Amino acid sequence: QVQLVESGGGLVEAGGSLRLSCVASGSAFSIHVMDWYRQAPGKQRELVATISSGGRINYAESVKGRFTISRDNAKNTVSVQMNSLKPEDTAVYYCHAAVRNTVTWAYMDYWGKGTLVTVSS
Question: What are phi and psi of 61, to 5 degrees?
Fold first, then answer.
């Protein structure tokens, strides 16, 4: 069993910055891919950024040049630095991880409960 806990959401003015972090905890697991998704009211959940265990990174076109994803494999964490925030970035941001159980070798997807980012004006 793996738990993902996000932190860092809050209220920020347009043009400001926030840093979101996600910590994976549990035992006997290895994370292959960690991602950030977001879901605005009335909209579908969308991928914001993804990073593999080998460091391959992809961003949604809407956040390129503004968001930076990073991970610390030793600490099983993933973060996203969000700069030049826009009102349209307002959403609940969710951490996701594709995890392999190192005992059973089974793969599972885990989701955090989300952290709200609100960008004003």
Answer: -55, -35
From the list 74, 72, 1, 69, the residue with the least C-alpha distance to 36 is 69
pLDDT tens digits, one per residue of 67-85? 999 999 888 999 999 999 9
Stretches in the chain below the pLDDT threshold 50: none
Q: Which amino acid is at 111?
A: W
Rounded to the nearest 5 percent, the helix, strand and coil shares of the chain are 5, 60, 35
Answer for the pair 37, 50: CB distance below 8 angstroms, yes or no. Answer: no
The sheet with strand 77-82 has its strands ordered as 2-7, 18-26, 77-82, 67-72
Contacts of 31 (CB under 8 A, 6+ apart): 24, 53, 73, 76, 97, 98, 99, 100
